């Protein structure tokens, strides 16, 4: 499920190629380290609302990353490797140009929300190279869920190779503001446990192996015209809601030839994405919302709920896709 790009230029530049919407140490709050004058940006606004960022044109960006907790949350403390769901704004200082903004689209319009208020957000791991650079999320370790955190520094330190990809020089200043909405501690090598049901007549069979599920498409069967889903293992975790970050293991094959085109099990690391906000193909949004953490789900997704008439990453246009998905965490 290729992520919807929206305004996430940095996220798009650094996203691991997968089928989703997929180190400078911070100083203590208020400390002015390096050759600059400390923070060059003043951030105002309440957490949950888009922050207003004012740039001090007379200040220079410090060589060392500066971190300020603008508002301390009351949730759990973020640990290294936690999967985070966040609202984010990132601004290039000299250009005063937004690199990421989860509150607005590239056209400057407010991002669309679902009926229950879910909207696109950034999913990343704390102090792990993921959809955001490790150096950007490192200062979030030890912060509490619900906090608003300002991270400011030079593009080369905070963005690495992605700085040039978004048109920045290494010494250009970048200001990030994070609202940490939720966090989950999940073993990225984990998978669902429990007795597995036999698949229903007409659906692919699934046998679990050490390297993940072995999916066999019924020989000679035409693919279904509508989304098919079956719960193979029933979990006892929380129900999945629109807008949450899901952490999953998955394997995908095409109905036409049964060949694996992607598998997190083969990569030996789970994948994380936002569900119910158009960040993944419609078949995943519809098939996974309402399931539970701990579920193993079989999905057979027709082309109109997958990639339609577009070829995607080697998947032929018009393909029916088959997935086995283990939901191992949510935030």
Q: What can you tell me about this protein's structure?
A:
There is one protein chain. The protein is 9% helix and 31% strand. With 331 residues, the protein is mainly β. The chain has 6 helices and 16 strands. It has 2 domains: 9-184, Chitinase A, domain 3; 205-330, Chitinase A, domain 3 (Roll). Its EC number is 5.2.1.8.
Structure, briefly:
With 331 residues, this protein is mainly beta. Helix content is 9%, strand content 31%. The protein has 2 domains: 176 residues, Chitinase A, domain 3; 126 residues, Chitinase A, domain 3 (Roll), CATH 3.10.50.
Strand content: 25-35%
- By secondary-structure content and strand pairing, the structural class works out as mainly beta
Provide a count of the helices.
6
What is the residue-mean pLDDT, rounded to a whole number? 88
CATH topology of the largest domain: Chitinase A, domain 3
Quaternary structure = single chain
Estimated helix fraction: under 10%
How many structurally independent domains? 2
Which residues form runs of ≥5 with pLDDT under 50?
1-9, 14-35
């Amino acid at each position: 499920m290729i992520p919807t790009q929206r305004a996430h230029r940095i996220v798009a530049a650094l996203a691991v190629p997968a089928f989703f919407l997929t180190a400078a140490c911070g100083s203590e709050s208020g400390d002015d380290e390096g050759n600059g004058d400390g923070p060059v940006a003043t951030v105002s606004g309440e957490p949950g609302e888009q922050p207003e960022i004012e740039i001090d044109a007379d200040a220079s960006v410090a060589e060392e990353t500066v971190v300020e907790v603008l508002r301390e949350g009351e949730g759990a403390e973020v640990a290294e490797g936690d999967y985070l769901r966040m609202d984010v704004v990132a601004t290039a200082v000299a250009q005063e140009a937004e690199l990421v903004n989860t509150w607005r689209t590239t056209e400057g319009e407010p991002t669309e929300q679902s009926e229950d208020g879910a909207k696109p957000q950034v999913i990343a791991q704390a102090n792990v190279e993921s959809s955001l650079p490790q150096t950007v999320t490192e200062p979030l370790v030890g912060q509490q869920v619900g906090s608003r955190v300002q991270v400011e520094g030079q593009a080369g330190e905070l963005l690495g190779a992605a700085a040039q990809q978004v048109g920045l020089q290494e010494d250009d200043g970048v200001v990030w503001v994070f609202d940490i909405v939720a966090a989950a501690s999940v073993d990225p090598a984990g998978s669902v446990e429990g007795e597995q049901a036999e698949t229903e007549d007409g659906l692919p069979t699934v046998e679990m192996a050490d390297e993940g599920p072995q999916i066999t498409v019924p020989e000679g069967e035409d693919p279904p015209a509508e989304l098919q889903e079956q719960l193979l293992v029933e979990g006892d975790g929380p129900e999945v809601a629109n807008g949450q970050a899901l952490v999953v293991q998955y394997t995908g094959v095409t109905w036409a030839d049964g060949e694996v085109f992607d598998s997190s099990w083969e990569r030996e690391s789970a994948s994380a994405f936002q569900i119910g906000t158009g960040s993944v193909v419609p078949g995943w949004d519809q098939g996974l919302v309402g399931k539970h953490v701990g579920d193993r789900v079989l999905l057979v997704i027709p082309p109109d709920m997958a990639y339609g008439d577009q070829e995607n990453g080697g998947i032929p246009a018009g393909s029916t896709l088959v997935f086995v998905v283990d939901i191992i965490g949510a935030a």
